[in-house]
Fold this protein.
Amino acid sequence: MDQTWDLLQTGQREGYKIVYINARIIDPSTKLDIQNSFLLTCGNKIIEFGISHKIPSGVDAVVDCKGLILMPGLIDIHVHFREPGQEHKETIQTGSKSAAAGGVTTVVCQPNTIPAIDNVLLARYIKYRALETSYVNIKCYAKITTQEKKLTEMALLKEEGVVGFTDDGMPVTNSLLMRQALLYSSMLDVPIAQHAEDLCLSDGGAINAGKISEELGIKGILSASESIMVTRDILLMKDIENVHYHVLHVSSKDSLEAVAYAKSLGLNVTCEVAPHHFTLTEDAVLQYGTIAKMNPPLRTEEDRLAMVEGLKNGTIDCIATDHAPHEHSAKDLPLESASFGIVGLETLLPLSLQLYHNKEMDLMEILAKLTYKPADIIRIPRGRIGKNLIADLILVDLNHEWEIKVENFASKAKNSPFDRYKAKGRVMRTIISGKTIYSLKI
């Protein structure tokens, strides 16, 4: 296996033309799916694509896709890159390298860094640090609240480029403060994203409250701790015009029922699910221990099946990893004391494609939830193929069978329960702004 890398500091130089031939081009936003196709980029943009067996004249480089899928790069709107403050766990550079290896061309960093992203200077730091060190496009949320439990300067933060607001890692428990945040966000036309958790119900819990927590004698986290908060927030937003409420890493059947009800009322409520919540259950804790500890926790088989059904019926809008890197010592502890979270950027695509290979979902539906749908939630013009759009693309071998090995991850962290997992489907090339930044040759 030969991996090549090129740090993204600028896009492809102006006027440089690359043609991708013999491609199966898929664009979920338009349901385009054409074989034996070509795509031509010039500089950082797509300028032409379609069916052709001929190489256009005047190109600088030719890439033979050999029948593989050429599609928009993946968008992951929920990652933790730990910078600033916990660079021993991950950095923007290492996290973005992990993203590139997973075919993720744009990420949204969560603001629970040290210090937290709750002011313009820190938001500006993330932006410029990304320009210096990132392999992929970096966006970020800012905090809803300050350390003093007041609203952040939301208007100024939006001007600085943040794409939404969340206190992820912790919920906004104060109902009045949450309603004020929803009101301000409606004026700014940005989403409020909630880590839905009633801390009084979950306090001290390590895993899902159920058969495994009882068997191990460990305090569990009730699924109601999530669904109660989701329901509260939906009630708070009901009479606010132009408000967008987004539920982070949904995990329980009851939460999905609340989201579905809100959607039936015409409310702008969206939600995301992490691959581990539609792939694993609480039983994984018995096999993997603290490596299978995350918040929200892995839940029951009924909840897992509800996540799959939610993806199929549209209640769940997108898939996001909640990429949460930790050093070995943070996980090598008793279950009650170990840190929550797993890494996920390099397993995002194969775990999602499992739904296709198992004939549970249509390929186009899955890819939509990894591309333009998350892009639409944060209102960025990415995740699509079209003339004059930025050339953020990936080349995917849908049927490539491989074994996931955490020691090969580009991330600093290796905390994944999917080590030695037999996967099908892999990213072979990642292109950002017309420039190949990652390629894999087997």
